[in-house]
Design a protein that fits this description.
Shape: globular
Number of strands: 7
Strand order of the largest sheet: 1-4-5-6-7
Oligomer: single chain
Distance between the termini: 21 Å
Helix content: 10-25%
Radius of gyration: 13 Å
Keywords: Plasmid
CATH class: Alpha Beta
CATH architecture: 3-Layer(aba) Sandwich
Strand content: 35-45%
CATH topology: Trna Endonuclease, Chain: A, domain 1
Length: 96
């Protein structure tokens, strides 16, 4: 994450304040949510403890689709999903 991104909430590391995304009966809680003021977008982050093997699982893709879809529908049309793996690999997931 770039240094200028603002952490809105997280439930990993030293952060104890999760940021819930909920509207009309659908709810999700990403591991971390950032706001990028330069690009005016939200970034939903997920951390997976497994090592990256070259594939994003269907469940991981579904989670980020839920989070970014809710953000795009009810807050801002600019949203991005990022998965970080325990081995240090990160993947940007474009779901739409």
């Amino acid at each position: 994450m770039p240094w200028y991104c603002i952490v809105l909430g997280a439930d990993i590391g030293g952060w104890k304040k999760p940021w819930f995304i909920k509207r009309r009966g659908v709810c999700g809680a990403p591991d971390a949510v950032f706001f990028d003021p330069l690009r005016f977008r939200y970034i939903a982050g997920e951390f997976k403890s497994r090592a990256f093997n070259g594939r994003i699982t269907i469940r991981e893709k579904y989670q980020l689709t839920l989070y970014t879809g809710l953000i795009q529908r009810f807050w801002l049309p600019q949203a991005q999903g990022v998965i970080a793996y325990g081995c240090g690999q990160g993947e940007i997931v474009n779901v739409f």
